[in-house]
Write a structure and sequence with these properties.
Elements (H helix, E strand, L loop, with lengths): L1 H10 L3 H27 L7 H35 L1
Helix pairs in contact: 2-3
Length: 84
């Protein structure tokens, strides 16, 4: 039984893999925000790949920065509600 648990733990992805996966998810979310903004104003500029990747990177950071306070607030409210 101990060997089965050890082999299961060995198959789990590392923290770096989870970080990379999260970064890709936020990058896609940032790209969606950028596309939504440009479609809302009716303009899609012709920009180079380097610039578009910069925009996507910045928007993924903004998405992460806006989702972290929201997630922590929900966690705190859930924790307070569960303790009462």
């Amino acid at each position: 039984m101990a060997n089965d648990e050890g082999s299961t733990l060995a198959r789990l992805p590392s923290a770096a893999a989870w970080t990379l996966l999260l970064w890709f998810i936020l990058l896609v979310f940032g790209g969606g925000c950028l596309a939504s903004y440009y479609s809302r104003i009716g303009y899609f500029p012709r920009i180079a790949w380097e610039e578009s990747l910069s925009y996507l990177g910045v928007l993924s950071i903004v998405a992460a920065a806006s989702s972290l306070p929201s997630a922590s607030l929900r966690s705190c409210l859930g924790w307070c509600g569960a303790s009462c």
